[in-house]
Design a protein that fits this description.
With 96 residues, this protein is α+β, with helices and mostly antiparallel strands. It has one domain. It contains three helices and four strands, in the order H-E-H-E-E-E-H. The strands form two sheets. A two-stranded parallel sheet has the order 1-3. The longest helix has 18 residues.
């Protein structure tokens, strides 16, 4: 059991993306509409950030090593019971 907990604590991600690849405006509009709908229904605060190349450059982004990230979805909230819905809403958003 200790090995599993240690592995979970040490888990990190390494991802490389093509920072020059742009998302078409039509797709951005669809994603934005989904976010607006989820926010209205849930009371959560989800944002789409685009063309931000410094997303994972700070020491605060310590989950792993990411390169080429310029677009991302942010799930924002104060500590409360509402945060329990973030994971399922985020999955719904990314899975369509």
């Amino acid at each position: 059991m200790t090995d599993i907990i240690t592995a979970m604590e040490n888990r990190h991600a390494v991802r490389a993306y093509d920072g020059d690849r742009k998302i078409e405006q039509e797709k951005l509009n669809i994603i934005g509409e989904h976010i607006d709908r989820i926010n209205a229904q849930s009371g959560l605060h989800i944002q789409l950030v685009t063309d931000e190349p410094k997303a994972f450059d700070s020491f605060m982004a310590h989950y792993g090593k990411f390169s080429g990230v310029t677009n991302y979805i942010v799930l924002i909230g104060k500590k409360s019971d509402k945060l329990k819905g973030f994971r399922s809403k985020g999955q719904k958003l990314t899975n369509g």
